[in-house]
Amino acid sequence: MSSALRALGRRVAAVEDGLGEPPADETLRTALALRAASRRERPRSGLFRMFAFGLAAGFATALPGWWVLSKYTDALCTPAPGFRIGSAALPGQVGRTIAAEDATVPLRFFEGSEVRLEPRTRARVTSVDARGAEVTLEVGTAHVEVTPRPGAHWLFRSGPFTVDVKGTRFDLAWDEQNDVFRLRLREGKVSVTGCAFGAGRTLIAGEEAHASCRAHVLSVTSFESGPATANTAVEAKAVPTPARGDAASDVAAPRASGAAPNQNSGSSAAVRRPDASRMAVPGWLELARSGRYAEAFARLQAADLEVERRKCGPAELLLLADTARLSEHESTAASAYHELRARFLGTPAAAEAAFNLGRLEAARARTSDATRWFRVYLDEAPDGPLAEAALGRLLEAELGTTGMESARATAAKYLARYPTGPRADVARRTLASDTAR
Amino acid sequence: MSPSHASVPHCSPPASTPARLPFFDSDRAIVAALRARQAAGGAALYDRYHAHVRRVLLRVLGPAGELHDLLHDVFVSAIDGIERLEEPDALRGWLTSIAVYHARAEIRARSRRRWFPLFSNDDLPQREANVVTPELDEAVRRTYEVLGKLAADERIAFALRFIGGMELVEVADACDVSLATIKRRLSRAQSKFRNIAARYSELDEWLAGGLP
């Protein structure tokens, strides 16, 4: 009986697997990244549990009635999902292109949100449902006001960029021909993905992003929010600060106070240089700790990298080196890892620097050097948090360089310590090839 | 550059490229990043385990349209509750148990919806199902039909053991019960499955012990 069920189970699994896995959902990935960054501790004390239990018991009797009531009142009070176009309030059709020729065209949605299309703008509403809508800006400028509601979810797409919105107010411009994306966030926060934004970047009120996909350029500057006029809202360019040194840096940081005067300051009251007294500019450490490595590196360069390095303790220096590595400034990263090892040898951070030097060398296909660095890590931190990764990477590097003999020894060691580790299959194959001979 | 030479050869940085999230080598690193509230930790958790979690949900629930939402719920629960994970190396098993918890809730919700249509979400727009149903063969369809008639806990144990191919200990861990309990549960599930499946001709040959 059991074997028959296993055979049936395997068949079911094979059919399911044969359907293929959907690709990674970038929107969900980004949402989870944001969730991780904004996670809050849950109170877990006994007192809290007692309080919560009492509260829950109190509500338990009233809840079913309220739920049923709200279900029907929602259905009665909330209009059906949809939108209307222009001052004539013509019913909008999903998927159809809406072109604003000479005048601004408002799109008004069922729950109060509004998207105003500037002249010479084309857009399509690609879906509308109870939670919100998806709007594709084909070209031009749109001013968006999404009404905040629980569970609201809006997406705005322009070229390769996607803006994920809950409830906020912003201006969005897309010029496909010149590959220019601009977003100015007036209220709330949004998450932008695609191209130069990579897996996701959160923008907060007061920030303005400029991006170009082909040139892989992303700049985020701050502006002083105020009563901007519609025409200058996005068109007025903020001035990104060029990074020093590695001038090809992909993110330009906003200037600190006392920066050069804004070239647009005379023409638009909406765009001014950030005022340090009113706007807290996060330092490189804060940016790096929140995973915004490219910005952190740009901030480091603006502040003087050498000075910052000298001020660092082992943990900060490790983070500085990681920031350089993860923002793809490998030579700076390697230099910082070496400095860390020279100044703080014997600390866990120095061991981790050795591991990361191995990783850098492996990425440059210098497997012999990579092998040595992974061994250094394993010598200095045999039970460290990266021991499994170091041993696995050592095995992979040895398979490519030093021959099978040392690789077999490493494979055996790996399997003994991590029989279900992610490189256990490689280790088994390595040992099996030995047996086959 | 080698361990004995600390000097760094100068090389110009590569052309500007989009910002990337860091790569995490281990579960410990992911857990540490999540506990430090780093956005990259959430992304890394998803990268490393979304296929696994999806597979667990798929095995238990079958190719249902709700998988995407459940996947979201599982990861959100994991991120919010990361402080409760005592052993970071057990991250995979812990995620499995969260997935099972959400799958159980979904099974019970489906059951409630069957009995109380008032609680249905039919007025909400449905996501497109993750699979193309014509590709499912009848045996698979019938299997989930039969599983739909089992109690939630029995269905989960059966699906993880026979469709997911998990060891008994893994099934017990995922269901957060003892080995003895899971054995009893599986025994009941097998017996019920066999009785109900006997009504479906598509499953006859399978249950007779041979491959059609």
Largest sheet of chain A: 16 strands, mixed
Q: Give the structural class of chain B.
A: mainly alpha
Distance between the termini of chain B: 61 Å
The largest contact between protein chains, plus residue counts on each side, is: A-B, 92 and 83 residues
Share of residues in strands of chain B: under 5%
Helix content of chain A: 40-55%
Q: What is the alpha-carbon Rg of chain B in Å?
A: 22 Å
Oligomer: heterodimer
* Percentage of residues in strands of chain A: 15-25%
Strand-helix topology:
The complex is a heterodimer of chains A (437) and B (212).
Chain A: H1 2-18, H2 26-37, H3 46-77, E1 83-85, E2 90-91, E3 97-100, E4 105-109, E5 114-117, E6 121-129, E7 132-145, E8 154-158, E9 161-165, E10 169-175, E11 180-187, E12 189-193, E13 201-204, E14 207-212, E15 217-222, E16 251-252, H4 284-289, H5 293-303, H6 305-311, H7 314-326, H8 330-344, H9 348-363, H10 367-380, H11 387-400, H12 404-417, H13 424-436
Parallel strand pairs in A: 7-8, 15-16
Antiparallel strand pairs in A: 1-2, 1-4, 3-6, 4-5, 5-7, 6-7, 7-10, 8-9, 9-12, 10-11, 11-14, 12-13, 14-15
Helix pairs in contact in A: 5-7, 7-8, 7-9, 8-9, 9-10, 10-11, 11-12, 11-13, 12-13
Chain B: H1 27-35, H2 39-61, H3 67-80, H4 91-115, H5 138-147, H6 152-163, H7 168-175, H8 179-197, H9 204-207
Structure description:
The complex is a heterodimer of chains A (437) and B (212). Chain A has helices spanning 2-18, 26-37, 46-77, 284-289, 293-303, 305-311, 314-326, 330-344, 348-363, 367-380, 387-400, 404-417, 424-436, and strands at residues 83-85, 90-91, 97-100, 105-109, 114-117, 121-129, 132-145, 154-158, 161-165, 169-175, 180-187, 189-193, 201-204, 207-212, 217-222, 251-252. The radius of gyration of chain A is 28 Å and the shape is globular. The model of chain A is unreliable at 225-280 (pLDDT under 50). Chain A has a 16-stranded mixed β-sheet that branches. In chain A, strand 12 (189-193) and strand 13 form a beta hairpin. With 437 residues, chain A is an alpha+beta fold. With 212 residues, chain B is an all-alpha fold. Helix content of chain B is 58%, strand content 0%. At the A-B interface, helix 1, helix 2, helix 3, helix 5 and helix 8 of A face helix 1, helix 2, helix 3, helix 5 and helix 6 of B.
